[in-house]
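WARN no homologs supplied; continuing
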Amino acid sequence: MKTTIKNTFAPLFALKGNPRIAVYTEALWGIPFNLYFPFLTLYMFSLGLEDADIGILLSVGLLVQMFTGIIGGVLIDKYGRRRTMAISDSISWAIPCLIWAFSQDFNWFLVAAIFNGMFPPGANAWECMLVEDAESDKIVQLFNWIYIANVIAVFFAPIAGILIGVFTLVPVMRVLFIFSAISMTAKFILHYRYSHETKQGVIRMKETAGVPVYKLLLEYRGVIRQIFTTPATLRILILIVVLHIQQIIATNFFSLYVTQDLNLPEQSLAWFPVLRGAVMLAFFLVFQRILNRYSIYSVMLVGLFTYIVAYVLLIFAPVGMLFPLLIFTAIDACAAALFLPRRDTLVIHNVDPAERARIRSMMMVIMLGAASPFGYIAGRISGMDRRIPFIICLGLFAIIGVIVWIERLVEQRKLK
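OK structure emitted
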């Protein structure tokens, strides 16, 4: 037993350089995020916002993400992954948390959405820092540990639920947002202090040193051409666009559906992430090493089928009953553990390493542009019937399944 545990955690202790500091500090972001996020939509609702208002905020956030995503790749190449990550993360997470802490009405949330929408350059730079100096066959393992770090952070979510049960939602959320700003800022400082610029980052900084930003932006024409003329990259782009739309719907309207339509108490929302985290953690630690023996496409298809089963259960969940929602959460967690790390690996493997920052930046921009209307649309639809957004998710999973199946066939042809 001791040997098994040692073998399981050996890769974690063997991490070095940028991957190590990324994994080791992830909880400083993950813990506060998981404390407030399950209640964020309900917090808005409690301060007078309607479903349509929340949808508008989602769409505004996506538009800001699209704009900052355009310049993100240029900033990452010109000023370095490390510096861009530190500045972008501080602006897009610490500041919005402080604004949310004192929010009074829609206008406050609008300003917070604008700042929060500036995270794409930091997210892109973080990913480059994580994988660029890593061995290609260890990338799935790296993403597994990142997911594990975030899953462990989820176990702190019940603290928020307990506090809300005692002190009510709004005052507790205000305190949590202040704590989040402090914790996340500590993470950004530590990550910057103990990381280093990647080899590819140094190369791109030298190549772009004397080039004005506007000229670098004009070079995106070639990047866009490369995305749309490379079949594998184009397929991955479609996949991440469809998946992002699904995640917008699922993550932002679940709490309203559960509390307003299924009549469960607000504090119960804290326990869904905990169950999801426990199932995902067990799955990562017990099954992932076994699953690594199989094709990532086969595992992803199984994950998508599992998602569909979970969402059918959610749509037909009876009013006032907690148990069916717990079953949904457990099945959804299994699906995420199967699908998400392999999605991330597939994206990395289908992007030109020499142009990773700009291609990932432009792919993010296209993804956000395509998804931006769906925050508003989902808000309007949710206002009519809060089950419909989750019915739409079933169709989106089917589209993703077709893309993964095509990728699987292409890979099989290559092996022949």
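The chain has a mean pLDDT of 86.
OK
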